[in-house]
Amino acid sequence: MPRKSEPQLTNSVRELRTESAMTQQDLADQVGVTRQTIVALEGGAYTPSLTLALRIARTFGKRVEQVFQLDE
Amino acid sequence: MNAMEKVAWTELTVSLAALVVVACLYPWLGNGATGAFGLLGILGFSVIFLRRRGQTVIVDERDRDIAQRATMLGLHGAWMTLMMTLVILVLWNSYNDRDAVSISLLNWLIWIQFAICFAVKGLVAVTAYRRQQHAS
């Protein structure tokens, strides 16, 4: 039975952070993670937990689906 | 490089160094070379990387995910190696009509499992960090 491929999660964190004139370290401090996690997240190499996704969305004053999109 | 990545590198290098030193000392010291596994004690100092500096986050969910996966693979790797070695040992002894296993052999097995566990754990964590950095 063929396995269904994992859906790809994309995000607009880099764009929203740049618009908000925040550094990666600023965002990391606000959401309580390391700067390296923000780097991995912006590059699409890391899928955040729901809690972290909600924290990031709240930081930018957006809904979570406006920040993270599922490409199926 | 964040704190947990430094810990992973320490685990990998110290465990591999311990295995190399033991292998180098074995021709001269024989079973006494297992004393060099004491080098694994250096791993206790890796907590230095985890000390807090102000309000900066040291360990986050990504680090915990990677550490969990690395620990699981490290333990499984060491456990599988131990089991396979014991099976081979029992079969070999049975084939040669021996009833006992030497204490020094068990001593070697236990130390090697520790070294393998930390080496695999370190390698898995370092690889995960490298892969995420290259992908981003």
UniProtKB/TrEMBL annotation, chain A:
GO terms for MF: DNA binding
Top-rank taxon: Bacteria
Gene3D superfamilies in the record: lambda repressor-like DNA-binding domains
PROSITE patterns: HTH_CROC1
Pfam families linked: HTH_3 (PF01381)
HTH cro/C1-type domain: residues covered: 13-67
Entry keyword set: DNA-binding
SMART domains assigned to the protein according to its UniProt record, in alphabetical order: HTH_XRE (SM00530)
Coiled-coil zones: none
InterPro entries the UniProt entry points to: Cro/C1-type_HTH, Lambda_DNA-bd_dom_sf
Name of the protein: Anaerobic benzoate catabolism transcriptional regulator
Organism of origin: Bythopirellula polymerisocia
Automatic annotation (TrEMBL), chain B:
Annotated transmembrane regions: 12-29, 35-52, 73-93, 105-129
This protein's UniProt keywords: Membrane, Transmembrane, Transmembrane helix
Protein name: Uncharacterized protein
